[in-house]
């Protein structure tokens, strides 16, 4: 039997078996109802338990979205959920905008051409994965190139997947503009008539999925699948079907849920909705707001719609984020008929170094206000200058009211442009074969007497092939006719779920404001007006939202304290073990539901940090590190930890303010010396590093100023150990598996690089400390610019220390230290011990002793010795050509009385300083008056005239750091 005969036989068997299935009601493929399919952005399809979310098996394929990485020009931002496209910028710098077509629609319409000279070519490839439902093992793949005839097997699972490939060519530059590959699973909308009892909430920023009972609101389970979720499917009717799900911001999803108390009488510990005590609870009605989330996977960006609660920072509409100039759009000629008009053009050019360059395109990451749809008018008719035979154009998306009832193909259908033409011919029938009809692209088509008239010639050569194709197209027709109704049902289900979420939030809001008791042991109401801008002046900020969630069961096992409530005036005094606090005395709050109250412990005033149960493990690690390190005066002091059924409470040292408040309002702390505060900060950081503890979140808000002691002394202390990392002995680096630690704008570049050469080390703290140093000395400036461009400039190593532009002694010293600390290469940064040895912290007395010791050391050295040569190298700028010309006349006269000094020699300048210091009391009164008092006036006399002298000498004599004489000024080489 020939190949054609075998194909016909297999086709007949398929049709006959399909009839038997319909008659007997037996499904060809059965799958347990307990399975749910979760598709993630990295290309994985997880088969999970519907009851627990546990992964049964995983089918790994290519990522949902694949786009190239350009060095200077980006493409577009694709939406992995449906293939929508977003573009940044435009002719009038509109900012982020949504294009009115998707990747499947472009592929469907290809080959086509837009009015700005972009040629679109597309390719669509379908595949069936034949999978063992028990193990997930892929048996085979069925494609158009498959040579084996495989008949259905009831024990196998068939999963359809379509790959859309789109390429854009720019006719103006004769270059490839952009290309992308989008993969989508074949799955119709879920049938709402089946009354699905679950709702799946997915996080837009990571792989977290929370499954909720739609009737009771109980959270049945939550799982994190490691990559953003783009689709949730059920298996029904022998095929995958979309399951109702909503995408929420990662912060919103964690904000809405946390582990409830474990009821020992209940065999199952479930999750419950809860309101996490943020500012909005007492000031505004919480609502879910639709946004566009821009995220990053590997080396490319993607965009997806996401719901957020009030309080999440949003990037405003129209913000182009360009550093100097916005993107430029090549002009497009608009004809009088308006047929070539397109706004904005997709031909967007970004300046070098803008937000979309390879190093800094990640600045787009975050939640944006929902962008407008670009009102793009695609070509409906080719102008004479653009017309080419055989070209199609991108059809405009039809409005619902104007959709033709006889057109069986939805614009969102993945059918090709050829299929669309064919369906129109079949739908109109032979009654209109003599009429001239406009094609999809608006051009006049020739008469068609039969459906075969529009088929390619090679397809009409085999009647069997034509018959099979006709049956396939009939299936597409049935799907297309029912698709709009099912899509509307899915949209309705999504809206109902969204309304239910918002209603639940509002009910919790009302409970919070009326003081509803949600636990027999704890009152969760508070009537405090909190300011999100006011900083926790006496405590460390909350842990980072990157910290993982944990059950509270362990806390309940260990926590024996009872939560007692006492009314005191307008506040509520809470007693938990030895810790007490009043709920109205709020010092600050932060993300993840963490609050800090003013309280008492064992008769002393303390700051009480209340932490949610999902952060218990982080809190325990923080407490452990505090216990290990708080013996140092420049590390926040830890007192006690207590627990109740819902929270963990940490009592820590009560402080007066943060370093940020000190910089913003120095009049309240005018008696404090900023250099002393910075030195104390480095002492505390050096202590942590000596214990192999890396802070990883050093910033002005995490450096506190203690309450003055009995002598009026104030200490700078390091706080917030939530992101600290204890490096095991024998190692010097830490991994980033748990996420990127730190606060944007203060993170070292090696932490954010896509492919770091080495793992981060304690040098990340030195980098952050360098930024803090400049922040304090410049009264609030940042070395890497404003907040919008800060982290981008950190990645590119572009800094500006404009505060130190003036060539004076203090600026030269500070500039040298800070430039070392904020070096882009971690290996080039000094250790904390080296920083503390830097001349920046030297008193005038130590500076004078250093000058004296250097002069004594080189006094007997020959002129050609390495030390003297090093000292005199570039010395002309140090002595300002001739140092004798820049000293006062009385000193010049006195120097001429004893010996001859070379005015162009650094060694002779140091010799003169040493001699005058040794014989200071023998100098004439006018010379003493000129030089000033020892040591401060004397040193200032010379360093004010020769601002580079100290730094130059210190650098030159570094070669002698191993000598005992210079141990007070340098860190010994073997300890660096």
TrEMBL record:
GO terms for cellular component: IRE1-TRAF2-ASK1 complex. The keyword Transmembrane helix applies. It comes from Mastacembelus armatus (zig-zag eel). It comes from the Eukaryota. It is found in: Endoplasmic reticulum membrane. One of its GO terms (molecular function) is hydrolase activity. Residues 844-972 form the KEN domain. InterPro entries: IRE1/2-like, KEN_dom, KEN_sf, Kinase-like_dom_sf, PQQ_b-propeller_rpt, Prot_kinase_dom, Quinoprotein_ADH-like_sf, Ser/Thr_kinase_AS. CDD domains: Luminal_IRE1, RNase_Ire1, STKc_IRE1. Keywords: ADP-ribosylation, Apoptosis, ATP-binding, Disulfide bond, Endoplasmic reticulum, Glycoprotein, Hydrolase, Kinase, Magnesium, Membrane, Metal-binding, Multifunctional enzyme, Nucleotide-binding, Phosphoprotein, Serine/threonine-protein kinase, Signal, Transcription, Transcription regulation, Transferase, Transmembrane, Transmembrane helix, Unfolded protein response. It catalyses: L-threonyl-[protein] + ATP = O-phospho-L-threonyl-[protein] + ADP + H(+); L-seryl-[protein] + ATP = O-phospho-L-seryl-[protein] + ADP + H(+). The keyword NADP does not apply. Residues 581-841 form the Protein kinase domain. Residues 399-412 have a biased composition (Low complexity). Residues 1-18 form the signal peptide. Its main location: endoplasmic reticulum. GO terms for biological process: intrinsic apoptotic signaling pathway in response to endoplasmic reticulum stress; IRE1-mediated unfolded protein response; mRNA processing; negative regulation of gene expression; positive regulation of response to endoplasmic reticulum stress; positive regulation of RNA splicing. This is Serine/threonine-protein kinase/endoribonuclease IRE1. Residues 387-412, 429-450, 528-569 are annotated as: Disordered. Its cofactor is Mg(2+).
């Amino acid at each position: 039997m020939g190949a054609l005969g075998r194909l016909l036989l297999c086709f007949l068997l398929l049709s006959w078996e399909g009839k038997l299935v319909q008659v007997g009601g037996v499904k060809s493929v059965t799958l347990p109802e307990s399975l749910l399919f979760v598709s993630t952005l990295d290309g994985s399809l997880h088969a999970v338990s519907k009851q627990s979310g546990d992964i049964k098996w995983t089918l790994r394929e290519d990522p949902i979205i694949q786009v190239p990485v350009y060095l200077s020009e980006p493409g577009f931002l694709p939406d992995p959920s449906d293939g929508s496209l977003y573009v940044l910028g435009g002719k009038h710098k509109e900012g982020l905008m949504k294009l009115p077509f998707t990747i499947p629609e472009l592929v469907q319409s290809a080959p086509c051409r837009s009015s700005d000279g972009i040629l679109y070519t597309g390719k669509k490839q379908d595949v069936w994965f034949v999978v063992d439902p028990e193990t997930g093992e892929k048996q085979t793949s069925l494609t158009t190139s498959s040579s084996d005839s495989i008949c259905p097997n009831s024990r196998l699972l068939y999963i359809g997947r379509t790959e859309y490939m789109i390429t854009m060519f720019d006719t103006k530059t004769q270059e490839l503009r952009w290309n992308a590959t989008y993969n989508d699973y074949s799955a119709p909308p879920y049938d709402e008539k089946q009354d699905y009892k679950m709702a799946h909430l997915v996080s837009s920023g990571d792989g977290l999925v929370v499954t909720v009972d739609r009737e009771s609101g109980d959270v049945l389970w939550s799982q994190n699948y490691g990559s953003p979720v783009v689709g949730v499917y059920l298996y029904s009717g022998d095929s995958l079907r979309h399951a109702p799900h909503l995408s929420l911001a990662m912060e919103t999803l964690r904000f809405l849920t946390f582990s409830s108390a474990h009821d020992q009488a209940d065999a199952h510990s479930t999750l419950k909705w809860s309101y996490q005590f943020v500012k909005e609870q007492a000031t505004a009605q919480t609502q879910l707001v639709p946004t566009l989330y821009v995220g990053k996977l590997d080396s490319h960006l993607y965009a997806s719609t996401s719901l957020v609660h009030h309080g999440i920072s949003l990037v405003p509409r129209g913000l182009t984020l360009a550093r100097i100039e916005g993107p430029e759009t090549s002009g497009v000629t608009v004809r009088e008929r308006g047929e070539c008009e397109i706004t904005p053009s997709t031909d967007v050019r970004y300046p070098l170094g803008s937000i979309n360059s390879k190093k800094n395109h990640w600045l787009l990451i975050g939640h944006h206000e929902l962008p407008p749809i670009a009102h793009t008018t695609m070509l409906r008719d080719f102008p004479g200058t653009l017309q080419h035979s055989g070209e199609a154009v991108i059809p405009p998306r039809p409005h619902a009211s104007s959709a033709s009832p006889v057109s069986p193909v939805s614009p969102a259908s993945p059918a090709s442009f050829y299929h669309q033409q064919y369906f129109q011919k079949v739908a109109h029938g032979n009654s209109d074969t003599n009429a001239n009809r406009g094609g999809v692209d608006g051009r006049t088509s020739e008469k068609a007497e039969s459906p075969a008239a529009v088929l390619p010639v090679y397809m009409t050569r085999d009647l069997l092939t034509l018959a099979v194709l006709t049956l396939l197209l009939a299936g597409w027709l049935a799907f297309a006719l029912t698709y709009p109704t099912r899509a509307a049902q899915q949209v309705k289900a999504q809206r109902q779920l969204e309304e239910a979420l918002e209603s639940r939030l509002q009910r919790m809001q009302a409970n919070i404001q009326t003081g509803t008791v949600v636990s027999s042991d704890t009152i969760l109401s508070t009537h405090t007006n909190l300011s999100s801008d006011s900083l926790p002046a006496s405590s460390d900020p909350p842990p980072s939202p990157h910290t993982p969630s944990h059950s509270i069961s362990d806390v309940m096992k260990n926590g024996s304290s009872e939560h007692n409530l006492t009314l005191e005036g307008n506040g509520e005094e809470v007693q938990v073990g030895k810790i007490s606090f009043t709920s109205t005395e709020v010092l600050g709050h932060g993300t993840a539901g963490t609050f800090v109250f003013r309280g008492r412990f064992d008769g002393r005033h303390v700051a009480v940090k209340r932490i949610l149960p999902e952060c218990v493990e982080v809190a325990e690690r923080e407490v452990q590190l505090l216990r290990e390190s708080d013996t140092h005066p420049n590390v926040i002091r830890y007192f006690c930890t207590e627990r109740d059924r819902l929270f963990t409470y940490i009592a820590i040292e009560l402080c007066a303010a943060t370093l940020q408040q000190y910089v913003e309002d120095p009049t309240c702390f005018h008696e404090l010396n900023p250099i002393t505060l910075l030195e104390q900060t480095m002492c505390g950081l050096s202590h942590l590093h000596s214990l192999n503890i890396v802070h990883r979140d050093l910033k002005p808000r995490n450096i506190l100023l203690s309450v003055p002691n009995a002598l009026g002394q104030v200490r700078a202390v390091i706080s917030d150990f939530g992101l600290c990392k204890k490096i095991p002995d024998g190692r010097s680096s830490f991994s980033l598996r748990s996420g990127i630690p730190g606060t944007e704008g203060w993170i070292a570049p090696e932490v954010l690089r896509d492919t770091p050469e080495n793992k981060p080390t304690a040098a990340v703290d030195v980098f952050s400390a360098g930024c803090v140093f400049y922040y304090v000395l410049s009264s609030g400036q940042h070395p890497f610019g404003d907040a919008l461009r800060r982290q981008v400039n950190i990645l590119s190593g572009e800094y500006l220390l404009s505060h130190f532009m003036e060539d004076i002694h203090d600026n030269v010293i500070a500039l040298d230290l800070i430039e070392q600390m904020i070096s882009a290469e971690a290996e080039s940064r000094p250790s904390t011990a080296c920083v503390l040895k830097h001349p920046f912290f030297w008193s005038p007395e130590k500076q004078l002793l250093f000058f004296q010791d250097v002069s004594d050391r080189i006094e007997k050295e020959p002129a050609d010795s390495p030390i003297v040569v090093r000292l005199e190298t570039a010395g002309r700028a140090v002595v300002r050509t001739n140092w004798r010309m820049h000293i006062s006349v009385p000193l010049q006269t006195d120097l001429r009385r004893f010996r001859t000094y070379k005015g162009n020699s650094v060694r002779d300048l140091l010799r003169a300083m040493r001699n005058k210091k040794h014989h200071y009391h023998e100098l004439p009164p006018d010379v003493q008056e000129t030089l000033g008092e020892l040591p401060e006036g004397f040193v200032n006399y010379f360093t004010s005239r020769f601002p580079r002298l100290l730094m130059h000498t210190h650098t030159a004599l570094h070669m002698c750091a191993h000598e005992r004489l210079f141990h007070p000024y340098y860190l010994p080489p073997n300890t660096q």
